[in-house]
């Protein structure tokens, strides 16, 4: 079989990893470049929720359905990277209760199993819950290891021949006429520059995607939406605890190993390199999450950090909680008259595989290859294979 | 808010470029609560974009950001700069690993004796009165975040590079405890010529472990089990 096109992926986040895997599985030659360590931007820093989709049913039904499908697939293809313990939505006051019927209806229509359970049962399952809770609904939420789950994709991609180059920053797009024909890179390990020729370049730089687009004179509808999370010592609950209300600030507690993660806040920024936490966010998270699980109030912050969501701008929405968590890919040949470049933006960690699949479908369409995606049913190699030079060839 | 000027003396190494390695100093204003990882991010974003280090989760869950902070193995993400109490903070890569550049190391040697297929899940803490749903067991990730601190701190690993090392022995013991069919073979491996016999009982592994795995305890347990004749 003749060798297929060489695809260069910019960005070693969850989507870049899943895309490298998808394309390598379809037979393309793949090189992925990432300016820092893999998963050091947004993907590695989320709270770890593997969404059942329930969190979005009230305002973003498309994202809810995507999450439901993808969480089932990820559990199947990377079972060792998921704490599969489920989640609860709890109502604490009249306002929360007023959402209950709509929440159950919408879960039903999105295909998300949501089971109302008696308050006494919720407290038996999770004794740390606020004893004054008024209602509880069980959903199939889970917790993923934000580093190890996507590392499964990188390990499998590498085993299928993809070149994964971390600490390699794209400094320019190489443009011939109106076609992107490669990338100029700086390898920060050796401080050497190089050009990597490509038949097609994919911009999967997450909240940094705008900077890559700008290198080709393209403006992308991307808005960095940073948020703050806090980890406290102690596994206060076994399951994910959500507040039964439209997604907002401080309404979720995610257990992870021996920690509990309090999430989140959100605002809109122009610069994805957010390294400071705005004053007031940490006390607010403690106050809001203490209402769900009172023991939170006795804990000190073990870690406080922020990460930039790669939000897709649509219309004039300026509320970071109401901007869709759905994703899109752009063929810049059709959109901007710049061939050889595709961008994927938006989405969530839970939907990384689907984002990659849709992007790979677009790449097949652009290269005229009829190669079906197979990542849905391909069990991934364990993440540790990444450091064991295992080849899946032959 | 309290801030203090802190000097970071950082190990720099770029094969063929900054070679041999040297230390370089960077001065930043550290705020209360600022972590070593946040300091590295600020240095990279404002002073030297070529500085490389590993990081991902920023809350001690991924295990990528371990390095030597003032000579001791720690996670950069949960080490607060001002709590170190020194005017200069010295940062170096972990010992005993192949260096990738600056503070980044290659993890191949860490995973050499940890089988990729060993389960990363274990039964979660059970509260006596808590019922799991419909008979399924509650699970959680292993406490070991595979950061490499224990391997870097282990004196036996330094004098005997072939030694499996504390992380692999602890992982082996975990796997044996799961009663896998391979348990007897795994115990024999732990007792082989690269196994627990090299442990000097220095306990450095347990002292530096950021997640309370206590590798030294696992090694002591393996020793005890090795003294019991295998079936």
Question: Overview of this structure, please?
Answer:
- By secondary structure, chain A is α+β, with helices and mostly antiparallel strands.
- Chain A contains ten helices and 20 strands.
- Chain A has helices at residues 14-26, 61-77, 94-98, 100-109, 119-125, 148-159, 209-215, 281-292, 332-336, 352-367; strands at residues 6-10, 29-33, 49-50, 82-83, 87-91, 115-117, 135-139, 142-144, 163-165, 168-176, 179-187, 192-197, 200-203, 222-233, 240-243, 252-256, 259-263, 301-312, 327-331, 341-346.
- In chain A, helix 1 (14-26) runs parallel beside helix 6 (148-159) and helix 1 packs across helix 10.
- The relative contact order of chain A is 0.20.
- The model of chain A has no long low-confidence stretch (mean pLDDT 95).
- By secondary structure, chain B is an alpha+beta fold.
- Chain B has two domains: 3-105, Roll (Ubiquitin-like (UB roll)); 109-227, Fumarate Reductase Iron-sulfur Protein, Chain B, domain 2.
- In chain B, 29% of the residues lie in helices and 22% in strands.
- Chain B is built from nine helices and nine strands.
- Chain B has a five-stranded mixed β-sheet. Chain B has a two-stranded antiparallel sheet with strand order 6-7.
- The N and C termini of chain B lie far apart (64 Å).
- The relative contact order of chain B is 0.12.
- At the A-B interface, strand 18 of A face helix 1, helix 3 and strand 9 of B.
